[in-house]
Amino acid sequence: MNRLGKLGEPFVFLIDFEMEKPRLFPLNENDLKLWLEIPGFSKLPENREKIKLKYWETSPVSFEQYKNGFKRVKKHILNGDTYLLNYTQPTPVKTNLTPAEIFASSLAPFKIYLENEFVCFSPERFVQIQDGKIFSHPMKGTIDADQENAIDKILSDKKELAEHNTIVDLIRNDLSLVAEDVKVDEFRYISHIKTNNKNLLQVSSAISGVLTANYAEQIGDIIYALLPAGSVSGAPKKKTLEIIKAAENYKRGYYTGVFGVFDGKNLDSCVLIRYIEIDGDNLIYKSGGGITFMSEAKKEYEEMLKKVYVPIA
User: For the chain, which has fewer Cβ within 10 Å, the N-terminal or C-terminal residue?
Assistant: First the structure.
C-alpha cells in the first residue's frame, strides 16, 4: 500500500478483522470477481438483475448460547479489563436471493461482493481521506424507527450515550496517531436505514484531522495504525481483542474488517458490517453490538437479531 501510494497508483484493499488475510486488487483490473459500489465510484458487471425478496429465514443462536458469551464479557467489564466490547455471533440465513442478487438489490452507501466469499452492504464509513484531511464517522446506537419518539429515545438512552461517548473518544485518539488537529465536527447525528424487516435509525458522529503532506506514501501505515476499527472492537483495544476471541469462539474473517479504494490521491473505505458470508451453499450473517457495564443481555441479543437484515425496501 505504501509503495503504490508513493507511485500514485490506484488500488482496492480488503483487510480482515484478524489482519491475517489482507488483499490488494488493481483498481483498473477487468476481473469482475469483485464488485463494488461506494460513493463516487463503482466497479460492476454489465448485467446485474434486481430480484424481489420473497422470503428471509434466520436461525440465530439461542438466547442461552448468546448469554454464555455475554456473561464472560460482562465479567471482564466488571473486572475493569474492558469498558466497551463489540460482541458478535453468526446467524445462518435462507433466502430466495443469491449473494449477487442481494448485492444488486440492496440500498447502502458501501456495497461489496466477492465471488464465493461474501456480500456486504455497509452503512458505516471507516475513514475517508480527501485533499490531505482524514475523516471518520463511527456509528453506535440502533433503534426501530417506527417506535414512538424513536429519535428522542435513542438520544436520551444513557447506555447508548455512554457507548457512543466511548467510541468517539477512541476514534479521536486513533486519528491522533496519524493526524494533527483532530476534532469532533458533529456529535450524534441520525441516519435512516430501510430494511426488509423494518426501518432503523442509526446514531453516528463525524471526526476529522489533518495529515502530513506526504501521506500518500504512508497510506498503508495510516490504515494499519487505525485497525481494527474501534466501533467493532472496543476499548482498550489490545485487551478487548483478547476477550472477543475467547467470548465469541469463532473467527470473524472479513466481517468487521475494512474495505476501501485509493484513487492515487484520495481514499474512501468502510467497515465490513451488515455482512453475509458464503459457505458453499450456506449463507451466514454475522452481527452484534457494543456491550458496556449498563448492557442487559436480552436487549443486546434483540439488537443483534435486529441487525440481521438486507436493506431492500
Answer: C
